[in-house]
Amino acid sequence: GDLLQYTSPGIRSDKEIVLIAVKKCDTALGSAAPEMQADKEVVLTALERSTYPYQFVDKDLKQDDDVVLAMIRHSDAHFSLATRAQRASKDFIRKAVALSGGLLTQVPEFKDEKDIVLAAVKDAGYVIRDASPRLQIDNDIRLAALISGASELVPVDMSFYDLAFPKELRKNKPFALQAIKQNAFVYKYIDQSLRGDEDLVFHAVAQKGQLLKIVPERFQGEAVYVLAAVKNCGAALQYASTERRKDSTTVLEAVTQDGFALQYADVTLQADKKIVLAAAKQNILAFQFASSKLPRDEEVKKVEQEYRIAVENQKQNNQDDSENYSYGGSMH
């Protein structure tokens, strides 16, 4: 709560104390001394938490560029606070759209300013549609929009990709490589002719291992690509070839990243003590995928006991959640 309201005027004027207070409580700025409400550092610190403290900001500071931008950071609806001069300022608009790219729709007079459009699409790729026709075909703009906007789920409406990643660029390896290095999901939209390119495949799976699922089959059996994938997504082991799932180095990397990847390992490795213990270390519940053929020495027995305790705790938590839900539901 706001303890500042119960303190002496001297404390309410102490900047160090007020800074601590506004970091912890939205209403604290309202209890601070007037000179603190007019102190830019204090105000910006308060606005990092929420927009609520804005009502307590000194009136001469409310239209300060940085204060208005701090509000826009929370919601582009606060662009309404911008003055006429700020709305006409190229520098201010560039900073504003960098915080909330969707604001480009509200400032059509800047849609042909490359630095402003670039800042906007870096935050929200879809606003490439609001750029001028000249900038919609600018490859710097297209690249930034694609990096920002390419998603894992392929949309029904492909109009964004038609603008940011037209057919000729989907066949352009240098462009595709630049994009994939910064957003691996771009791989999903490249031309079929590039799907088997080793550089593109490696950079894609090295960032998002789950993409191993859609790369050409030969890569699912090559150690360098599978290892790159499971290092960042252990579950990608499920998309690896049978041979790779029998490889102890590959499987160890996978279970170290995600213990549950043990379920995708070859049965012989589910009985490998080193691998099973590595999986259980990452997630004790992964022990459920250990083979019944795993030698039960003292170390394994200890882990198995920890697993049984974890299972019981999980059951109890689920039961408590169910009871709380039922109790809450009966109140309606």
| Form type | flat
Average pLDDT taken over every residue: 94
Computed Rg? 28 Å
Low-confidence parts lasting 5 or more residues at pLDDT below 50?
none
- How large a portion of the residues is in β-strands, by DSSP E? under 5%
Number of helices: 19
Cα end-to-end separation: 30 Å
In sequence order, what are the helices and strands, one letter per element?
HHHHHHHHHHHHHHHHHHH
The class by helix and strand makeup works out as mainly alpha
Number of strands: 0
Main pleated-sheet profile: none
Relative helix content? 40-55%
Question: What would you note in describing this structure?
Answer:
It is a single chain. The protein has 332 residues and is mainly α. The two termini are 30 Å apart. Helix 6 (65-74) runs parallel beside helix 8, helix 8 packs parallel to helix 9 (114-123) and helix 9 (114-123) packs parallel to helix 11 (139-149). The model has no long low-confidence stretch (mean pLDDT 94). It has 19 helices and no strands. The longest helix has 33 residues, at 298-330. The radius of gyration is 28 Å and the shape is flat.
Helix and strand arrangement:
Blueprint: H1 9-12, H2 15-24, H3 28-31, H4 34-37, H5 40-49, H6 65-74, H7 84-88, H8 90-99, H9 114-123, H10 133-136, H11 139-149, H12 159-164, H13 167-170, H14 173-182, H15 198-207, H16 223-232, H17 248-257, H18 273-282, H19 298-330
Helix pairs in contact: 2-5, 5-6, 6-8, 8-9, 9-11, 11-14, 14-15, 15-16, 16-17, 17-18
